[in-house]
Amino acid sequence: MSMLKKLLSFRNNNTPKNTVNGGQQPQDQQNTATSQKGSFFKSSGSSTPRGSKATPANNNNSNNNNALTTSTGGGTGGNFVKYTAFEVYQLGATEYYASHKNLYDFPPQIFVGGDPSPDTNSLLCFNPVLSTLILDFNNISVIPDSITLLSGLRHLSLAANQLADVPECITKLKLVTLELGLNRLTAFPIHVCGITSLSTLYIESNNLTSIPEEIGQLVNLRVLSLTGNSLTSIPSVLPPALEVLNLSCNDITETVSPALVSVATTLTTLNLAENAISSLDIPCFTQLRQLRTLVLDCNMIGELQGDMVSGWESMVTLNIPHNLLTSLPPQIALLTNLKVLDVRGNRFEFVKKESPEESSFYKFRIDNFINDKEALEQLLKSKQQKLEPSCNISVTSTTPPISELSLDDNNNKEEEEELSSSLRSSKNNNNNIEDTPKIILPTPIIITSNSIDDNAKVVNNNDNDNNNNNDNDKSSTNIVPTITTTTTTTNESKNEEKNESPQKLIIWQSVVPDLIIDRLYLGCRECSINKNWLRDHNITHILTIAHFKPLYNNLFKYKCIDIDDVDEAPIGKYFKEMNEFIEQGRKEGGVLIHCRAGVSRSASATIAYIMYQNNITFQEAFDITCKGRPRICPNRGFVEQLKQFEQTIIPPPPQPNNIKTSSNSINTSTGSLKE
Fold first, then answer.
1. pTM
2. Residue 109 DSSP label
3. How many angstroms separate the CA atoms of 577 and 563, rounded?
4. Are the C-beta atoms of residues 219 and 196 closer than 8 Å to each other?
5. CA torsion sign, 18 to 19 to 24 to 27?
6. 212 CB-side CA count, 13 A
7. Which residue has better confidence, 97 or 463?
8. How confident is residue 388, by pLDDT bands cut at 50, 70 and 90?
9. Number of neighbouring beta carbons within 10 Å of residue 452
């Protein structure tokens, strides 16, 4: 326990142990370690990040498990200095979580439990037990060399920190999962390619422009996510065993990639949403026969080639909403494994005629989205012919094998009677059916396609004869041999073709924004990506009040206000520039205001503009906005800022002229006013 206390009192080499800012603190002062860069702990006196728990600085609170103290005077009467740790590491724990804690370094309390560090100047120890370390949303800028003391670490997450590079020491770990999203990486960290044990790698929302060829060394990597970077093409080299690849939210325009072909036998999920792709490379994408999920949302794809689609034999989910499609290729109807098809926000004319309230996923069949009906009919007919086998019947009985039996229109009933008589005689000679060996005919009975209906009649007649002849012999009623056909008629084949699988789930109805006033719309995130609807309704300006990057810079003018939907967010200071942008947009065309859900942030911006334009109160503007979009609900902080904004655009009412308290006085003796 004494070693743990020493570790918790350790800050850095420049700060004496058991002191704060280099000086000892008396017992009656309840100070905590400050949250400066280089320290391990955050002071309880500073503000606490949203979502974290504040630790009160109270030395008398014996139940505070997060308040850790060390003695500076020796014995029980020494002075105490309190250091506040966000999360206490329980010795032997395999997981440690410290997200949103404003940490600048790795917490030293996790380096315990094993042998001391080889560094004689370090108080840290090996911890072979810790396997999962989550330090997301902090201020960590450097991965320390001491991370090698965590020899059992398998999952490391440092998302949303300040990392600009990854040191070579990380290659000494046998990590399985590494998460480095939302950092300051401008180049792919080359040392990550040396962690050959990696199975999952997330390097999202950085500023990567290329991927090195060394990534091919990650022979065990199954999942790679590079969403939210600045890639302009699919990487030229990919890990050989890759199964899931996420390249969404980049700037990819080129889809020719030999690397995709190299992983065609293993790749099952590919996400290319929110790029600038206008077409898919046919030779490359045709070979993705193991692909089960393909996501192509929000690109500029105008056509899917039929030859390419026919190669997607394993496709289960195909998402291609908000592109420029006017028709689907007939080959898509032959994808028997396809279960979900998302085609929202494209240019299918018949969909535009439907009511926006219509949302049935089963309203349309896949052939409704195929314009070339003649080609579709030919493909289905060709497939049906390939699926039609020769018409066979298999018989199980005790009679001698019959190699071939013709059952066409010229057949007489002699063959039927002979067969029935033979079957009956064999049954009468065998009292116990279980003792009778069953002979399965090695050669199937061949029936011509024109006489299948007659075959059914023959089988029924045989059954009727057997039943009639055995009415008096109840013991033989259960031993009638069966004749089973393995084919169906042409009409039955057609029916099976139509009902071979449940109807595909087709998502076709897109979300559209609400009109609040003339040329001003309010909506959610999805409304902003429905470029076809926006262009059809003459939207020229998009005001985004959230952390989303513009999708269609070449189509619309954007203004982005990056704030969160929290009470303390200062949305009021942006009212002026937002109002000017909206005013300009309404003059040039139309404006869409959106956030994530279209409920709080974008609603507040809309209310502020209506107040500004009409010089009306918050409540009046709120009622106008709510009439157009009833679901709006600005948070309390935004409401207060809107009411303050009201005071700047509406002057206070003047006081009545007949009340002049400043110049008039009251004669207390007479009770009358005197000047």
1. 0.68
2. G
3. 14
4. yes
5. negative
6. 13
7. 97
8. low
9. 18
pLDDT tens digits along 178-205: 999 999 999 999 999 999 999 999 999 9
Structure tokens at 23: 């000086």
- DSSP letters of 568-609? T--GGGGHHHHHHHHHHHHHHS-EEEE-SSSSSHHHHHHHHH
The angle, 0 to 180 degrees and rounded to 10, between the axes of the packed helices 490-498 and 373-387 is 120
The average pLDDT across 360-387 equals 86
Q: Other CB atoms closer than 10 Å to residue 192's CB: what's the count?
A: 22
Strands across the sheet containing 591-594: 514-517, 520-523, 591-594, 541-544, 557-560
Mean pLDDT to the nearest integer, 107-117:
89
- Is the distance from CB of 322 to CB of 345 less than 8 angstroms? yes
Mean pLDDT is lowest, of 39-48, 207-216, 438-447, 495-504, for 39-48
- How are beta strands 244-246 and 269-271 bridged, if at all? parallel
User: In the predicted model, is pLDDT for residue 642 greater than 90?
Assistant: yes
- Dist CA 184 CA 207 (whole Å): 7
Q: Are 311 and 287 in contact (CB under 8 A)?
A: yes
For position 120, what pLDDT does the model report?
Answer: 64
CA atoms of 104 and 55, how far apart (whole Å): 18
Whether residue 396 contacts residue 482, with contact meaning beta carbons closer than 8 Å, is answered with yes
Residue with tokens 């505070």: 64
Locate 428 and state its tokens.
């009468």
Give me the pLDDT at residue 333, please: 93
Distance of CA 670 to the CA centre of its chain: 82
> Is 74's pLDDT higher than 70?
no
The secondary structure of 196-231, three-state, reads CCCCEEECCCCCCCCCCHHHHHCCCCCEEECCCCCC
Which residue ranges form the domains of the chain, and what is each CATH number?
Answer: 514-649 (3.90.190.10)
From residue 624, give the alpha-carbon distance in Å to each of 5, 482, 586, 595, 631: 61, 76, 18, 19, 13
Q: Among candidates 415, 487, 478, 418, which has minimal Cα distance to 447?
A: 487
**Residue 221 above 70 pLDDT?**
yes
Structure confidence at residue 10 (pLDDT) = 35
Query: How far is the C-alpha of 465 from the C-alpha of 456, rounded, in Å?
Result: 14
Short-list 515, 410, 524, CA closest to 458: 410
User: Which pLDDT does position 159 carry in this prediction?
Assistant: 97
Out of 34-43, 188-197, 340-349, 579-588, pick the least confident.
34-43
DSSP assignment letter at 15: S
Residues with Cβ within 8 Å of 261's Cβ and at least 6 positions away in sequence, in order, are 284, 287
The residue type found at 572 is G
Which residues are known to be catalytic?
A: 595
Name the token pair of 616. 């009306």
Three-state SS for 350-394 is HHHCCCCCCCCCCCCCHHHHCCCHHHHHHHHHHHHHHHCCCCEEE
In total, the chain counts a number of residues equal to 675
Residues 6 or more apart whose CB falls under 8 angstroms from that of 638 comprise 567, 569, 571, 600, 601, 604
Residue 440 has pLDDT above 70, yes or no: no
Distance in angstroms (rounded) separating the CA atoms of residues 36 and 127: 26
Listed residue (163, 116, 120) closest to 144, CA to CA:
163
Q: Which residues contact 97 (CB under 8 A, 6 or more apart)?
A: 87, 134
Q: What share of the chain is helix, strand, coil (3-state, %, to 5)?
A: 30, 15, 60
Token pair belonging to 219: 């022979």
Span 23-49, mean pLDDT?
31
What are 497's two structure tokens?
């073709």
Q: Which residues contact 432 (CB under 8 A, 6 or more apart)?
A: none
> Residue 56's CB: how many other CB atoms inside 10 A?
11
Q: Does residue 103 or residue 396 have the better pLDDT?
A: 103
